[in-house]
Amino acid sequence: MEPKVRMGQQAAVYSHARPSGEGEIVLSVRDLAVEYKAKRGAVKAVRSATFDLYKGESLALIGESGSGKTTLALALVRLLVRMARISDGEVLYYRDGKATDVLALNNQQMRSFRWQECAMVFQAAQNSFNPVLRIAEQFADTARAHALNDRAEIDRRARDLLRRVQLDPERVLRSYPHELSGGMRQRVLIALALLLNPQIVILDEPTTALDILTQRNVIDVLNNLRKQLNFSVIFVSHDLAMAAELADRVATMYAGRIIEIGDVFDIFQNPRHPYTYGLMKAAPTLHDNVHETFSIAGSPPDLIDLPSGCKFHPRCEFCKEPQCTTEDPPLFDVGPRHGAACWYWQEVKQAAEADKADRLAQPDIADVAATAGTTEKVG
Fold first, then answer.
1. Confidence tier at 287 by pLDDT (50, 70, 90)
2. Which among 54, 47, 67 has a CA at the least distance from the CA of 237?
3. For position 82, which CATH number holds?
4. Most buried in the list 101, 243, 353, 373, measured by CB within 10 Å?
5. Rounded CA gap, 162 and 157, in Å?
6. Nearest-CA neighbor of 253 among 241, 230, 236?
C-alpha cells in the first residue's frame, strides 16, 4: 500500500542512486536486516538498512548506543556473533566493474574478502592484537593469511604504512602491543588494516578512550591517508564533532533503521528528521548558554517490542496522531541527496531554520569577550 502523504508535503521517496557519472559505487546495501536471538523474542537490531558507498567517500553512522551502528558494520563483513543472523537484504561489493554478493560467499571466500577488499578497525585496539607477538609478526601473520609470503615486500609495505600514520617503523615493528600507547596502537591498527590495499575500511569508534590531542592526531592521519590512498571509509561514531571532521556523508540510525542520510553539511546545518535535529541541539556550541542544556526526552525503544508507526514517535516533539503512531514513514526526498523518514519533515525544517536564525542573531563569543575586556579597562 502506498504511504499516505500529508497536505503540502513532498511526496517523492528518496532515491539512493546518484546521477550517472557522479561517482563509482564500491558497496551497495539494500534492505539489510539483522536479528539477535533472545528469550523474549527476536531483537531487531538492524531494519531495512539501505545505502550506497562511493569510491574515496567517507560515510559516518551516527546515533545513540544501541541504535544498530556497530551491528550494521559487523554484518557487512559477516563478523556477527552466533546468536545473530542476517534475516534479509543484499550486500553487493564492486571492483573493476564486477559485482560480488557478499552474503553468498562461502567461508573461504569470506576470509579472502576480509582485509583484501574490506578491512575493519575495532574499538579496543589493545584487544585486536596478539599480546605475545611483536608488531612485525602481526603484519607478517596478516599477510601470510592472504597468501602473501614475500617477507621483504611485507616489511617494505609495513614500514611505508607506519610512516604514513606518523610512527617510527624501527621502534614500532620490534615492539609488543603493551609497549605502545593507546594512540600508537590505534594508528598501528589503521596501518595494519591498509596492508593489503582494501577498497573499504570500516572504523568502529576509532577514537574511543583516547585523549583529545590523540583524537586530533588520529583524525588528521585518517584524513591524510584517504587523500593519499583513495579508499572508502564507513565509520561508526556517537561523536558528532568527529563525524563533522571525517565524513563526506552522514547516516543517522535510530532503532536499527537509517532515518536520515545526506551530505555532512546538510545533516549538521539542515536536519530534517526530529531525531537528528535533537542530536544537533544536544551538542553544545560556543554560542550556547552554559546554564541550559538540551536533551532528547525518553529512551530508545525496546527492539524486541517496537512501537507501532514511526519508532521515534514516543519521544518526538513533532508527533501528530494518528499518522505518526500508526504508519512508519518511508525515506522522503527532502533535498539534493538528502533523505529523511519523517511525515512532518517540513515542520522540522522550519524549526531548524528558526534555530539557525536565532544563533546568527547572537553576538559572536569573541566579540562578547572583547567587549567585556574593553568594559573592564574603562572601569
1. low
2. 67
3. 3.40.50.300
4. 243
5. 9
6. 236
Q: Which domain holds residue 58?
A: 24-109+233-379
The reply to whether 284 falls in a domain is: yes
Q: What is the pLDDT of residues 229-268, one digit of tens each?
A: 999 999 999 888 889 889 999 999 999 999 999 999 999 9
Euclidean distance between the first and final Cα of the chain, in Å?
A: 71
Is the model's pLDDT at 139 over the cut of 70?
yes
DSSP category for residue 300: P
What are the residues facing 321 on neighbouring strands?
Answer: none
Cβ neighbour number for residue 198 with a 10 Å cutoff: 20
CB 266 within 8 A of CB 340: no
- Whether the pLDDT of residue 377 is over 50: the answer is no
243 vs 186, 261, 265, CA distance in Å? 18, 13, 11
Residue 212 lies in a domain: no
pLDDT of residue 322: 93
Domain count, the chain: 1
Q: What is the pLDDT of residue 102?
A: 97
Per DSSP, 307 falls in state P
**Cell of residue 11, nine digits:** 511526496
Instruction: Tell me if 222 is assigned to some domain.
Output: no
DSSP codes joined into one string, 96-128: TTEEEEGGG--HHHHHHHHHHTEEEE-S-GGGG
* Torsion of Cα atoms, 370 then 376 then 377 then 379, to 10°: 140
- How does residue 90 score in pLDDT terms, banded at 50, 70 and 90? very high
Please name the residues in contact with 242: beta carbons below 8 A apart, sequence gap of 6 or more. 60, 207, 215, 219
Tens of pLDDT, residue by residue over 294-328, are 788 889 999 999 999 999 999 999 999 999 999 99
Q: Which residue blocks in 194-340 are alpha helix, DSSP H?
A: 212-229, 240-246, 264-269, 274-282, 323-326
The predicted-structure confidence for 228-239, as pLDDT tens digits, reads as follows 999 999 999 988
CA separation for the pair 120, 114 (Å, rounded): 8
pLDDT at 208: 75
Instruction: Give the span between the Cα atoms of 253 and 272, in whole angstroms.
Output: 14
Q: What are phi and psi of 153, to 5 degrees?
A: -70, -40
Q: What is the dihedral of CA 67, 201, 260, 25, to 10 degrees?
A: -140
